[in-house]
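Pilot study result, target chain (79 residues):
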Amino acid sequence: MLDGMVDALKPLDQIPGDQFEMVSVSIDGPGEVQDAARSSSYDAVIRGLDTMAAGGIRFNIFAVIGSHNIDCLDHIIDL
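Predicted structure:
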């Protein structure tokens, strides 16, 4: 899910889960790491994940691991 897509899909809870096979979401780590890399998007991404989970929309999370987030793997896995 690109930056800004959560805002574009604000009525996500009104979209039937069968509209998507799966949504891929990129996240870099906890708020301070994600926000530094992606324009203060952490809270919006987490809200989007919660909304998709509640609505039965399947999603996966991926991350590009680098020196900026190598210590955040546990956080990413726990999501």
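One observation from the pilot: The chain is about 40% helix and 10% strand. A full batch analysis is planned for the follow-on phase.
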